[in-house]
Amino acid sequence: MDPITQEMLSSSTEMNSFTITTNTPNSSSMMGSPSGSSSSSAAAASSAVSSPTTLSRYENQKRRDWNTFGQYLRNHRPPLSLSRCSGAHVLEFLRYLDQFGKTKVHTQLCPFFGHPNPPAPCPCPLRQAWGSLDALIGRLRAAYEENGGKPEANPFGARAVRLYLREVRDSQSKARGISYEKKKRKRPPPQPAALPPP
């Protein structure tokens, strides 16, 4: 099994927390000791406070996705640097990920095309669900900029990637008989206008 496959499979199942520990000296270690002894500075150094910061599930997933994409670029033939990566490479990556999909997408020849709950199995292919791809691109887009990429050069925000995601959404919507319409936000009821003071 190649390393990218392993990373994708482990990232979809593992939910370990990632902890960053920072050591900061407490306020007593900042003050000089009146006696000037070296033992007090050693004691102050050993009493450093440890404050762990646990990353959120989103941050962990974003880190794993970024590492997976980096591995994909390293395994690409010829190997690609991030600076030379384009929207076309992102599309290639998304198509590569389809082989690990778990969502049944019916073909137009399938008798269950357009049925959300087919009554029997069929030989139609498994693909990555549109929602998963959309979320993945959102995380990678954010990670790209957090890792020093310029927003205007972000390959994850390329027009071709947006069009591809729209095409996947529409085709899966038809094939699976599921609507992906945006949920409309409920607006708060209008507040009565305040009367002017007399």
From TrEMBL:
Residues 7-26 have a biased composition (Polar residues). Residues 1-61, 170-198 are annotated as: Disordered. It comes from the Eukaryota. GO terms for biological process: mRNA transcription; response to light stimulus. Residues 189-198 have a biased composition (Pro residues). It is found in: Nucleus. Residues 27-52 have a biased composition (Low complexity). Coiled coil: none annotated. The keyword Transcription regulation applies. GO terms for cellular component: nucleus. InterPro entries: ALOG, ALOG_dom. GO terms for molecular function: DNA binding. Keywords: Developmental protein, DNA-binding, Nucleus, Transcription, Transcription regulation. Its main location: nucleus. Pfam families: ALOG_dom. Residues 57-184 form the ALOG domain. Belongs to the plant homeotic and developmental regulators ALOG protein family. This is LIGHT-DEPENDENT SHORT HYPOCOTYLS-like protein. It comes from Perilla frutescens var. hirtella. The lineage of its organism: Eukaryota, Viridiplantae, Streptophyta, Embryophyta, Tracheophyta.
